[in-house]
Amino acid sequence: MLKILFIGDVVGQPGCEFLRRHLPSVKRLTGADIVIVNGENSAVGNGILPSSANFLLDSGADIVTTGNHVFKRREIYDYLEETPQVIRPANFPASAPGKGYYLYDGGSYTLCVINMMGVTYMEPLNNPFYEIDRILAEVEATYYFVDFHAEATGEKKAFGCYLDGRVSCVVGTHTHVQTADEQILPKGTGFISDAGMTGPAYSALGVNPQNVIDRYLSAMPTRFEVQDIDCQMNGVVVEIGKKTGKCNKIERINIK
Fold first, then answer.
1. How far is CA 42 from each of CA 4, 6, 67, 72, 245, rounded to the nearest angstrom?
2. How many CB atoms lie within 10 A of CB 123?
3. CA distance 186 to 193
4. Which of 6, 175, 190, 233 has a Cα at 20 to 30 A from 199?
5. Catalytic position from the list 22, 69, 174, 176
6. pLDDT digits (tens, 9 = 90+) for 119-161
7. Is 174 among the residues known to form the active site?
8. Which residues pair with 192 in a beta bridge?
């Protein structure tokens, strides 16, 4: 059995520090073999920086995925080229820094972790359905795991069903709200619409609620702040059959 621990979007320094404090014990209790963390909001002030990506890796992440905020900070561009285990959505143009997947060598197996972004209510990137077909045809691995960073639950579910039986698991990110629809699809692919987030529990998607309220009341640009208050860590534990590559179990976690 291969166990993968996936941690939802880490928000700011409070989220990073909360993950560092709790990840070792969660990994031990779940028996996870591999840890994947979405870090696209891990930097102070939004986006991801080399320092925040290294913090996540040093805290126990094996692979860091991202999303629509990955290129907010120019400092990350060269880092993505130099650090293959930190990936960006594969359906950005090929000229964009970094790669959209990472091939993890587990010795007796390889795990291809793919980052893909939805296009409904998001940036008009390449069609994720065509892009995933291209990667699956080009990259040979024992197992495939997908972080689908998307807004619409309908697009996420359609993407999961499209990949049913072709990948071991499709985990949604981006909305920062953990959904209760974890399931194993008919052909053996694990699925959840959104893994949730790691950051301040009393927040609007990780941000100080008053910042968001002010934006709605004034319709003016507002500086978003991540408060250093009690945090939560959302994610899922996925069990994959080593012989079949199918998902045997997917279970939500919520640490406070």
1. 21, 15, 11, 12, 31
2. 11
3. 16
4. 190
5. 69
6. 999 999 999 999 999 999 999 999 999 999 999 999 999 999 9
7. no
8. 171
